[in-house]
Amino acid sequence: MSDDSVTAKDPLADLHPELQKMIPAKEVIYDAIMGKIEPELLSSNLSALTEKYKDESAEDRKARMQKYKAAFTAYDKAFQEWIAKLGDAVTEERKDAFEKAELGSREEDAGQMSNLESAFETADPPSHS
């Protein structure tokens, strides 16, 4: 007997909970992208499509399916572009943070060296007894 109740693993399950909270709901992302491409395919509209098109001809259905196929192709492209831009922005922020941390460390090191140099300059010479 096969088990049809197997559920897919949540791809975000391994993320730190704070990162999980920052990610918009999958429907929000989908609708934000698809809404600009084919509003009829927004998640809130999907359940009404069967009723809306119950009397369409086979030819009209075929044309609509082609339109939907093109919409999902455009969606896939737009989603990949969005992910790439997000990745670029996060990478840029990481680079900026690293450079700022490195600069701060160098400034701290320079300050410590300056303090050492001042201490040597103002120190009394050793006395020979």
Number of domains: 1
Overall helicity: 55-70%
Number of strands: 0
Radius of gyration, in Å, reads 30 Å
Shape verdict: rod-shaped
Uncertain regions: pLDDT < 50 for 5+ in a row? 1-5
* Overall residue-averaged pLDDT value: 85
Distance between the termini: 98 Å
Order of helices and strands: HHHH
- In terms of structural class, how would the helical and strand content be classed? mainly alpha
Number of helices: 4
Describe what you observe in this structure.
- It is a single chain.
- This protein is mainly alpha-helical and 129 residues long.
- It has one domain.
- The chain is built from four helices and no strands.
- It has helices at residues 17-22, 26-34, 49-52, 58-122.
- The longest helix has 65 residues, at 58-122.
- It is rod-shaped and about 110 Å long.
